[in-house]
Amino acid sequence: MKRKGTFLSRLFMALVFVFLYAPIALLIIFSFNAGSSNTVWKGFSLDWYGKLFHNRLIMQSVYTTLLVSLLATVIATVAGTFAAIGFYAMRRRVRQPLMTVNNIPMMNADIVTGVSLCLFFVAVFNGWHGFAVWFNQAQRLFILEENLHLGFGTLLIAHIGFNIPYVILSVGPKLRQMDKNLVDAAQDLGCTWMQAFRKVILPEIMPGIVSGALTAFTMSIDDFVISYFTAGSSASTLAMTIYGMTKKRVSPQINAISTLLFLTVLILLAIVNLREARQERLSARRAG
Amino acid sequence: MSKELIRLRDLCMAFDDEPVLNNINLYINDKEFLTLLGPSGCGKTTTLRIIGGFATPTSGDVLFDGVRINDVPPHKRQINTVFQKYALFPHLNVYENIAFGLRMQRRPDPKDPKRMVKIPNEEIHQRVMEMLEVINLKGFENRKPDALSGGQQQRVAIARALVNRPKVLLLDEPLGALDLKLRKDMQIELKRIQQQVGITFIYVTHDQEEALTMSDTIVVMDKGNIQQIGTPEDIYNEPKNAFVADFIGESNIIDGIMVRDRLVQMYGKQFPCLDGGFGENEPVDVVIRPEDIDIVPVEQGQLAGTVTNVTFKGMQYDIIVDFRGFKWLIQTTDHSPVGARIGIKIDPDGIHIMKKSAYSGMFGDYSSFSEEYDELDDASLVPDEEESGDET
Known about the structure:
heterodimer, B: Rossmann fold, 22 strands, 34% strand
């Protein structure tokens, strides 16, 4: 009875992993296929990777993705860190509802976030249009752009927006672990608040900031839904380009670029997790 | 010794309309070792934080050398603090922790007094090394704080504050996290350091023994009020009310009536004493310390009671004696078995009379003797942070 139970549970486990990883494995294997079929193996080749790097559309979207992810990560990390310090300084009664507000966007369906951001931007642009027309008629000194469109700017704003909660979530615990007298001690020894922040708080919460930044970067790199609704037609991230390519003819180039994207995210996640494990070991040693 | 350095005038403090300090008036002399003593939540840490500049009083003034400093930020006060649990900077080694304050300092250039310059590295090095010598930690410069024992961290925290040559050092329960033996050593060490550097120490603790050992002056606080200010001897021998008598050392506190000067009545019997100045037949609290009671045969005693509990303490026995339902603690070197009828005799100088206060009747009965000891043990483990108004 017991053995049978073990067997069944192992089988179940195996099935779970097969369904999870077999498609990815297939994708990776066929990205090295010499032929253009996704079902028949014609021998090993790196052709598709080579073609990838000569595909201007893909290279352009890789550039867009990296740029928006890096910019969004930097801005969200700075904003999120200060927001976390603000939360930390609040009283619990105020902090807890705000933390819930902070957590909702992470749980919220991407499609809802994406559509609502899209609607919001369009509404703001409409308002702006009215204002700009009036402003341009009223004077001739500064001519304002009357028609704004979704594009790189809105894409960046959306990415910053959905990244900030991850940074707050990762910096917050580091602040709470910190001896709360450290800031007092630094001020006692002659620091202004800003100096205390730079010399004492920052080194203490740096691991949290780096983890937050890495998480934010990962989220940005592989986001599709929110980008799709906020990038408009002028900017396209890698995920959007891949999606666009599948609509026409499924080229094995998709396999190659997806493999690269998968590996990038995998490596980033591995770094985040390894860092966290090391941090836990360190703090355990410090406590013990 | 007698020059006044700090004065607190009508200091009040409230967190969310909850009063924490009520009308604190206190002056602190230069080079004095002053201890704020009281149970958790009595307002002692808040008082210290106000002096340090980490909290702003709701009303009242803080004067330093006669100048009002209510709004002066901590980094501009000539006061340094040793924090609870040390608050050493974990990412800096011992040397850099101690040098931290010096590296922050700017002072007028000796050649051009209008320019503010850093302290040169050679001077920082020399002063840090000097401090390492004072705290007996030479050779530990490159250790990180988490590679030090509790006592060593404690001493680094003191050095980090003292290296700035403050006029006043604030210490917030600095020995709370150390074990008993180390605590005793550090008490002596602290007193030595204070005398060596010759500055004012303001010390916060809930440990009455610590306060008695080190202080020039003790300020006993409870519920945001100062209960008594005095030398350790004053506080122990002449407690002002039942709270002080109970908090400092062990006390039997008995209802009495002052028949006239130098004569008090307890249990319907009259006892000669040394106190006076009360109204005729005024109800009073009578304090009798457990070590001031002599055990005698029943017929020679002023009072007779039954032994209900005996605890061997090494140097003496702690025995609990029931006198008509009110239990006394007596410390004696003679053994009396449980159940024995004994008589007691109290010399006039062993009786201390106090006016009735809000605390009358709350302390001084040893009916719950063993539990009280347990509570005392627990109290020393609970970190005293509730009063800082922080919620974490």
